[in-house]
Amino acid sequence: MKNYRIYFLTLLAISFGFMACSDEETDTEKPLITLNNPQNETYFHPGDEIDFDADFSDNVALKQIKIDIHIAEGHEHKSAVEEGEWHWDTIVDLSGQSMRQQFDIPVPLATEHGEYHFIVYATDEAGNESFQAILIDVDYAL
Fold it and tell me: Are 90 and 67 in contact, with CB atoms under 8 Å apart?
């Protein structure tokens, strides 16, 4: 009888140990993006530089950001870029719970005028993603 009691108590202790391990919380919170610059519907000329400035934060850990700029006309997201259409993208690795990113993005001289989508994505270590999208305009004369 004593052997059964020891066996039962051992089994019970192991079961509680497994339950304690499964109580780990999963990160489901998306990172936050504060896009300081550029502002929505800002105008740029071909040859200008866009002053990118944004703050990123996450409750656990940031992983990376992606910036995607492409023509907005027709709202077609296609893989082929037509002549004169400007498409720019980059990925930047991040770390920690908060970071500020600032850099210049050149607008090529041959950029076709029009509206462009400017989309900023942020991903955390758990794979949660958020994004912020604005429109910018490229024009020859203002």
Answer: yes
- Contact status, residue 28 vs residue 82, Cβ threshold 8 Å: no
Element (H, E) at 132: strand 129-138
Taking a C-beta distance cutoff of 8 angstroms, is the pair 100, 55 a contact?
yes
Which among 75, 89, 95, 96 has a CA at the least distance from the CA of 121? 89
Looking at the chain, the whole-number percentage of residues with pLDDT higher than 90 is: 70
The alpha carbon torsion through 77, 79, 84, 90 (nearest 10 deg) reads 90
Phi, psi for residue 37 in degrees, rounded to 5: -155, 135
- In the chain, the percentage of residues whose pLDDT exceeds 70 is 74
The model carries a pTM of: 0.77
Bridge partners (DSSP) listed for residue 133? 119
Contact predicate 31/58, CB 8 Å: yes
Q: If you search the block for the tokens 């305009």, which residue do you land on?
A: 137
CA 26 to chain CA mean position, Å: 19
- CA quadruple 55, 59, 60, 65: dihedral positive or negative? negative
Strand partners, 123: 64, 129
